[in-house]
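Sharing in case it's useful to others searching the archive later.

Someone asked me privately for the predicted structure of 6-phosphogluconolactonase, so I'm posting the question and my answer publicly. Question first, with the sequence:
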Amino acid sequence: MITKMIWPDAGKLSEAAAHFFVLHAQKAIEKNGRFVVALSGGSTPKTFLEILATPAFSKNVDWKKVFFFWSDERFVPLTDKESNYKMAWDSLLSKVPVPKKNIFATPVKGAAKDCAKQYETSLKAFFGGKTPAFDWLMLGMGDDGHTASLFPGTDILQENKRLVKEVWVESKQTWRISFTYPLINKAKQVVLLVAGSNKAPVLKTVFAKKAKAVYPVQGVNPKTSPLWLVDEAAVNF
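And my answer, the predicted structure tokens:
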């Protein structure tokens, strides 16, 4: 089952996402004393983070009780302009009073394989040996239907044991580190932010009543219905 909400443009979509973030944060903190989040990269998530950083939204979040991870990361230094961590730091984390100990950046020093294992180990440690289940796991979607760094034709799509894995992306000639389906689908709430007419062909398939599994994003099937926040251009089909 899919829950989707359509907004006029990427700006309104991102503002709606900020509202949902604040609401989920308050509920999770009230219930469990913390709000554990996984972020993603991309232009639409960037706009969402920038809006979330504004006082209108940020003042309503107890940032000392929010913990950040990343659903995927480009295998570049954290200071690199391509880094998902850097994007989140510049857009949000440097502008709100979240303790640095609450920020769990993906390791990117050494071999990608080792870094993926390190991140999985830190995840398990954080959740105290329990199966990691994020309160809010944010994803985007590429016009090829990839989400996180689960690209079409890559071996990681068949991974059913590891929670975090390295993946070689041939089309980009680079390594990435990504959450796998087993981890993504354990999240209490998955939120997908998708904007732009270039995403329409993929969404036409994803939102079809009897959709065939064609794209990696269709492997996102948590128990709680994923929330798709999309703009009008992305569903103009």
